[in-house]
Specification:
The chain is α/β, with parallel strands linked by helices. It is built from 55 helices and 20 strands. Strands 4-5-6-3-7 form a 5-stranded parallel beta sheet. A 5-stranded parallel beta sheet has the order 9-10-14-8-15, sandwiched between helices. Strand 18, helix 49 and strand 19 form a beta-alpha-beta unit. The chain is elongated.
Length: about 1500
């Protein structure tokens, strides 16, 4: 263990075990140690402190050997079960290797000091096994929790807490620490001290140290140690070393661990390394067996299908790992398969196989249900026809009976109607009389109302009197004057009404004297009551008129004395009596006037009563007739009801028959399909476990691969399952299992390209249970995600953003999706719990830790991660926790996209129509799937008799009708699309050429780190190329401009309407121009396609070549030509590979002596390889030719230009291409010249002769969102070129529109502010030497992304950088990939050949500069000499310092200054009329400038 555990590979470990076995056999011959080292089933040799069980660990356990895996498993599974009862459960399978690791970790942490360094890839179980080991040793496991602001102070706090527990409380602590938690490299300073001595400098302040000394004083004394400050502290540190153990979980991938181990040696020197090797196959098998054991869909436990699936699990892991290694070695792309990936496969398969089986059984049940109801309906049709015939007879009988009743009811109804009319006449008469009576009553009552105040006044006069007043009055023997007359008047009124007043025969008062009055008042109470009752007598008409007239005569005779005021002085009683008489007489007068009306009212009332009696009699007769009619009507209604019921039942039966026929017609076609589908369902149930296993393996392992490697993985999976007898479909397709056609159509509508690889990516993303991390350099995946999640409240953030954690909190809490865009190659530790889905149970809810917060995790939460990097290196820890999906555009997918682009530019009518058709087709697929599901759902949910549910049948019929219409449209759309495709396919060679060129550009990054290109930039180059040779007429924008200029002048509504009309007309004209169709056919179309392919190639090569280093230009153009020849079939891949690599034959014959003088052994073996190529077999064997014609071959070999010299006779028929094979092997120094000629012959001289860099032309290609990237070389400065162009466009430093910043320390914020300002205002900014600001370039990258959203059209950004140095190498990532991708790259390096240098030198002098010289003849001649000399000097740089004392960096400034000096000297000589001082010029040029 001391040596073996440190070995980093399985091969080394196997070799070590062999050496150990051999040595043990030699040294301990008498013991049988071979059982521990045998190849198959070796006996475990495990010593551990828990040999007697976890319960015996209190005193440090018993360190002893554990006999066999069974005992080891018993002990550790018991510890695991106990751990799971007390902590968050770990679902572990403790196979042999895992148990051995637990034993090693326990052994390490039980020693003082013991710190295990567990080295292995993420997901190999390092943390889980550390926790189990800690629990087994009865330690407390502690980890730091990384939050957004976790730093050195927080780490100190956590360490102090651990030190308190371990040093003060004397408890065992395991500090579990991973390399993912190293957010600050300074953390390792503390960790290094902890490992080395336990005494961390600066961990405690002096007062805190004193507190600790006091806390451990008693323990120190108990140990028999003197309690000096130094002893106390050493005692504390001793406890730390004994109790606190770090378990360091580091990954060996990348340079991080190696670099940290060099800087902090205690990481290796003070730890015990335990290297976690890949899980063995038997371990994987055991894990698979445990988790898949309960899956019923796999069949019985002993079935061969289940056995094959269980064996496939470890195979898929190993197979995918092998493909990943090949992927890494061939493509230089990083892919890892980790144990976590294996577990995720099991988890995904466990879920999906059940879902697929349930879904198929559900579909089968639905279809069977639909078929059953369809067949039942067909049977019901015949029965319904018979029932309908019987119902028809019953309906006729009931109708006849109802008709008889109807006649009788009609007669009675006429009689009732006649009597009702009479009653109505009487009722009208009564109503008229009643109205008259009411009017009369109202009039009488109104008149009587007027008399009410009089009565009240009279009664009020009596109310104040009582019997005492009348007693006083009658007691007077002689009343005062007038009192007697008042009493007499009262006597006259009461005559005949009050018995106290005696009357004569005529009814008048017999004795009107005072005596008679006294007699009248003899009983005062009765007298007063008689007065009060007088009103009643008046109302009843009992008062004789003579009584009132006599009283009136007395009243009138007395005049004013007959009043209350007149009598009140004489007698109160008389005064009240007087008031009463006055008012009662007035009341009598009113009543007498109303009496005639009252009489008329009485007569009218009698008439009304008579009429009412007559009306009642008539109504009684009508009621009798109506009762008779009602009885007849009831009988009639019953008959009609019976008739209607029978008719309704017949109608229902007929409707039911109609519905049944319609249902049969609607579902007959579907029934055939359903029957076939149900028939296939049984077969599919058999193959679902196997097909789903392939699909789940595909989703778990192959997302990171490109198409070629995906297909290789799937083939391996299918071959193995077939070999093991696991049933599979006829053509197992993971994509068909993971996604339906309708789903893929919906994705296409959301912006996902429809090629197979893109659909596979979408299927993996939607099925994966891990969060997805997409490699998306062309930004096609992120566009799809944004469209897909736009309605779900998608949050967008990025790593390191100040509000990233807030965005995560909102998304987690509200269950919204979140996208982390433009990621680098790391994930911040604070969000790793979310990425790795480390959830905790809180009641019935799941929570996740985000920093120091616990947030509820909603089921709808989704995390997407995206990177623009084309070839990122994500470590196994990240690839284990996420599903990495390679969204890089595929060659086929890009070919289709470029084909559509070319067709859009050449035939916009076809492109527009096809775009519409594709959208329609996608919608149709979704619609058909929805309608099919709707039909089955409605049938499944139908309750009772389906034929009674008219709404259901109508909706099914409507769905069927819609489905048929959609199918017809689909057929029509497919026919139309086929016609369009037929025309579009003529342009496919252009799309194919473009796709080939883009993937060639993608491969250039393997040559140099600066050669990185974006798809957007490439597409714009292709568009520019096709547009440059367009056949359509250029648009005339004058009318548009006129309309736009006039528009602002109109302010009223009428004017604005005219403006809108004008703009609409212009838009229509534009559309007409865009729809201009130029159809080419036959030979013209073929020539056009060839032209487009050539022009696209030239534009792409020109665009690329502008940014290439001079040494790479010929290589790239050669690669382009070879790719084109390979695609066209003119060259075979085998030939191309031999030309590039020239591999020597492993078993060549001996080289002859004649050839040894001019050939090497390697060249001889390489020529032997050429004999296998078809082209070299025609003239006999090459080696024989070389041996027989050695002189001829040597003569050709020694030619100065063998590429154009005659070849030896046996190979004289070889063409230029195959001639290069011989040059590649025998004269590689002339291969460049041969390639140059080969390119010129096949592509044209323009591919070799590059025009000098033209800043103005390059500027025309640029946009506000594409910066310029100038590569700096010795003697090359782009600043003057940029400034010269700026002056032409009025953009200079003087007017503030050009800002030139040379990057260096302190310029970071200045540059960012200047960049933002220039973007807003439309200025130019030049940031020079950005390679010096490595850490700041991420900020620049983000700033360039931000300013894209608001930058002015005239904004331009210029960046300059030196290429990586020789120490770093050409592939050093000096500049972030997103910056390089978006830039227009310019590498204006001096070429190495004379012709190009001469052309470049001449380009530095404009025609205006040449014409400005007064001696043009001398100037031109001398300028040519200067340029020729400069070109020789510049070209000689390729030989370095050879022949000179150093490598001189002569630059363009030397040449241009010499030109200016020459012009000035010549102009001066012409102006002064003197001779040109040629010796002076020669000295200046030769001795000074050069």
């Amino acid at each position: 263990r001391g040596h073996g555990d440190r070995l980093v590979s399985v091969t080394d470990l196997k070799k070590y075990r062999g050496l150990a076995a051999e040595l043990s056999k030699k040294m301990f011959g008498k013991y049988n140690f071979q059982k521990f080292f045998q190849e198959k089933n070796p006996e475990p040799l495990v010593f551990a402190p828990f040999s007697k069980g976890i319960s015996e660990m209190d005193g440090g356990g018993c360190y002893d050997r554990i006999a066999g895996y069974d005992r080891l498993s018993e002990l550790l599974n018991g510890a695991l079960n106990e751990y799971n009862e007390n902590n968050a459960a770990m679902d572990l399978v403790l196979f042999g290797d895992a148990m051995c690791h637990v034993g090693k970790i326990c052994r390490i942490i039980m020693s003082t000091p013991g710190h295990p360094l567990l080295v292995g890839v993420g997901g190999s179980g390092r943390q889980s096994l550390s926790r189990l080991s800690s629990y087994t040793c009865q330690y407390v496991t502690m980890m730091i929790v990384i939050s957004g602001n976790y730093g050195m102070n927080e780490l100190k706090g956590d360490l102090q807490a651990m030190y308190t527990k371990a040093g003060v409380k004397d408890e065992g602590v395991m500090f579990l620490f991973t390399d993912g938690q190293i957010t600050n490299e300074k953390f390792l300073v503390y960790i290094n001290d902890l490992l080395a001595s336990g005494d961390i400098a600066d961990l405690y302040a002096s007062d805190e140290k004193d507190a600790i000394r006091n806390a451990v004083r008693s323990g120190c004394k108990g140990a028999g140690i003197q309690d000096t400050p130094e002893n106390l502290w050493m005692f504390f540190i001793g406890r730390i070393r004994k109790n606190l153990h770090m378990s360091l979980c580091f990954s060996p991938v990348g340079d991080a661990m190696r670099s940290r181990a060099r800087k902090f040696p205690a990481l290796v020197n003070c730890t015990v390394i335990d290297w976690f090797q890949p899980w063995p196959m038997d371990a994987l098998y055991n894990v698979g067996t445990k988790f898949l054991g309960s899956i019923e869909q796999l069949g019985p436990q002993d079935s061969p299908v289940r056995a094959g699936i269980l064996e496939f699990m470890p195979f898929s892991f190993e197979s995918s790992g092998s493909v990943a290694l090949k992927f890494m070695s061939t493509e230089r792309r990083y892919a890892y398969t980790t144990p976590k990936s294996f577990l995720e496969l099991i988890k995904l398969y466990t879920t999906m196989v059940g879902q697929k089986v349930d879904a198929l059984e559900d579909q089968k049940d639905r279809l069977s249900n639909g078929l059953t109801k369809l067949r039942q309906t067909q049977e019901d049709v015949k029965a319904l026809e018979e029932v309908l015939k019987e119902k028809a007879v019953i309906v006729a009988e009931k109708a006849q009976a109802a008709d008889v009743f109807a006649e009788e009811v009609g007669r009675e109804k006429a009689n009732v109607q006649a009597e009702s009319e009479k009653a109505n006449v009487e009722a009208a008469n009564c109503a008229k009389i009643a109205a008259d009576v009411s009017a009369q009553r109202t009039s009488c009552e109104a008149d009587l109302e007027k008399a009410v105040p009089l009565v009240k006044t009279a009664e009020a006069a009596l109310d104040v009197l009582d019997k005492k007043d009348f007693q006083e009055l009658k007691a007077l023997s002689k009343p005062p004057g007038g009192v007697d007359l008042v009493c007499e008047a009262a006597m006259h009124l009461l005559a005949g009404l009050d018995p106290a007043v005696e009357v004569d025969k005529k009814g008048n008062a017999k004795d009107p004297s005072w005596k008679g009055s006294v007699k009248m008042m003899n009983a005062p109470e009765k007298f007063l009551q008689s007065l009060k009752d007088f009103k009643t007598h008046i109302n009843e008409g009992n008062v004789p008129p003579v009584n009132v007239e006599k009283a009136r005569k007395i009243k009138d005779g007395m005049g004013d004395d007959f009043s209350r005021s007149g009598m009140s002085k004489k007698s109160g009683a008389a005064a009240g009596l007087c008031e009463f008489i006055i008012n009662i007489i007035m009341y009598y007068d009113v009543v007498i006037q109303v009496e005639p009306k009252r009489q008329a009212l009485r007569e009218a009332t009698e008439t009304l009563n008579s009429a009412n009696e007559k009306l009642a009699a008539v109504k009684e007769l009508v009621a009798e007739l109506e009762a008779k009619l009602a009885k007849l009507m009831a009988e009639f209604d019953k008959a009609m009801r019976e008739k209607n019921e029978v008719m309704a039942e017949a109608a229902k039966c007929e409707n039911k028959l109609n519905m049944a026929q319609r249902l049969v017609n609607a579902l007959s076609a579907n029934g055939t399909i359903w029957e076939a589908t149900v028939g296939r369902a049984a077969e599919e149930l058999v193959v679902i476990p196997g097909d789903t296993l392939v699909a789940c393996s595909f989703a778990s392992y192959v997302g990171v691969f490109t198409r070629q490697y995906r297909e290789a993985c799937v083939k391996n999976y299918i071959d193995y399952l077939t070999k093991k007898g696991v049933p599979l479909g006829p053509k197992p397709d993971p994509l068909a299992v993971l996604a339906s056609e309708a789903a893929m159509a919906a994705w296409a509508g959301q912006g996902l390209p429809s090629d197979r690889v893109s659909c596979e990516n979408g299927a993996i993303m939607t099925n994966s249970q891990r969060w997805c991390l997409i490699i998306d350099p062309q930004l096609q995946g992120i566009v799809w995600i944004k469209n897909k999640e736009s309605d779900n409240g998608l949050q967008i953030t990025r790593m390191g953003h100040s509000k990233m954690l807030n965005s995560f909190e909102v998304s987690l809490d509200q269950g919204k999706p979140i996208l982390v865009e433009n990621m680098a190659e790391t994930i911040e530790a604070v969000i790793m719990p979310v990425v790795s889905r480390n959830t905790l149970k809180r009641g019935n809810k799941k929570v996740v830790k985000l920093g120091d917060k616990e947030i509820i995790l909603k089921d709808s939460f989704t995390l997407y991660m995206q990177t623009k990097l084309s070839n990122p290196h994500y470590p196994p820890e990240i690839q284990a926790e996420t599903t990495v999906i390679n969204f890089t555009v595929t060659e086929d997918g890009l070919e289709d996209q470029l084909l559509f682009l070319v067709v859009k530019l050449e035939r916009p009518d076809l492109a527009k129509k096809k775009s519409e058709l594709i959208q329609q087709q996608n919608e149709f697929k979704v619609t058909l799937a929805q309608l099919e599901a709707l039909l089955l759902e409605k049938l499944a949910n139908a309750e009772g008799d389906i034929l009674d549910d008219t709404e259901l049948i109508l909706s099914l019929e409507e769905a069927k009708k819609t489905s048929d219409e959609v199918k017809e449209k689909v057929v029509f759309a497919q026919e139309t699309e086929a016609k369009i495709n037929e025309t579009s396919e003529f342009y496919r060679p252009v799309g194919s050429r473009g796709s080939l060129l883009f993937f060639l550009l993608c491969d250039l990054c393997k040559m140099h780190t600066f050669y990185k290109y974006s798809l957007d930039a490439f597409v714009s180059v292709v568009s520019r190329a096709v547009t440059s040779v367009t056949l359509r007429k250029p648009k005339e924008p004058k009318k548009v401009e006129e309309v736009q200029e006039e528009a602002p002048k109109e302010e009223d509504e009428e004017g604005s309407d005219e403006d809108e009309d004008a703009q609409e007309e212009v838009q229509e004209e534009e559309e007409e121009e865009e729809e201009e169709i130029i159809e080419l056919e036959g030979k013209e179309l073929t020539q056009r396609v060839v032209l487009l392919g050539d022009i696209v190639t030239y534009f792409v090569v020109t665009y690329t070549r502008r940014g290439l280093l001079d040494a790479d230009k010929l290589t790239v153009v050669s690669m382009t030509l070879f790719k084109i020849l390979l695609r066209s079939g003119k060259v075979t891949p085998e030939e191309n590979l031999v030309l590039i690599r020239a591999p020597p034959d492993p078993n060549p014959p001996p080289i002859p002596d004649l050839a040894k003088t001019w050939l090497t052994e390697t060249q001889w073996a390489q020529i032997k390889t050429l004999e296998n190529l078809e082209a070299f077999k025609k003239g006999g064997k090459l080696l024989e030719s070389l041996e027989q014609d050695s002189l001829g071959w040597k003569r050709w070999f020694t030619e100065e230009k063998p590429e154009i010299a005659d070849l030896p006779r046996s190979v004289r028929e070889l063409g230029p291409y195959h001639r290069m094979f011989l040059l590649r092997i025998l004269r590689p120094d002339r291969l460049g010249a041969a390639l140059t000629q080969f390119i010129t012959d096949n592509l044209g001289p323009e591919y070799i002769d590059q025009a000098p860099f033209d800043m103005e032309a390059t500027y025309q290609e640029s946009t506000r969102i594409a910066p310029f990237f100038f590569v700096l070389f010795p003697g090359v400065d782009p600043t003057p070129t940029i400034e010269a162009l700026g002056r032409k466009l009025s953009i200079t430093e003087a007017n503030g529109r050009l800002v030139n910043i040379s990057m260096g320390q302190g310029q970071e914020q200045v540059a960012l502010h200047a960049l933002t300002k220039a973007a807003r205002e439309g200025g130019w900014i030049m940031l020079q030497n950005i390679h010096l600001m490595q850490a700041w370039l991420k900020d620049l990258e983000r700033a360039l992304e931000v300013v894209e959203e608001f930058s002015h059209e005239e904004f331009r950004c210029f960046l300059t950088s030196e290429p990586p140095g020789a120490m770093q190498g050409r592939l050093w990532d000096l500049i972030p990939e997103p910056i390089l991708q978006r830039c227009i790259k310019v590498a204006d390096e001096a070429p190495s050949d004379l012709k190009s240098n001469l052309r470049r030198a001449y380009s530095k002098f404009s025609q205006e500069s040449i014409d400005a010289c007064l001696k043009p003849k001398e100037f031109k001649a001398t300028l040519f000499a200067l340029c020729f000399f400069h070109s020789l000097i510049s070209g000689r740089i390729k030989f370095g310092a050879q022949g000179w004392s150093k490598k001189y960096p002569f630059n363009d400034g030397d040449l241009t200054i010499c030109g200016e000096v020459l012009k000035n000297y010549l102009n001066n000589a012409e102006a002064l009329g003197t001779e040109v001082p040629w010796p002076d010029l020669r000295y200046i040029f030769g001795e000074i400038m050069y």
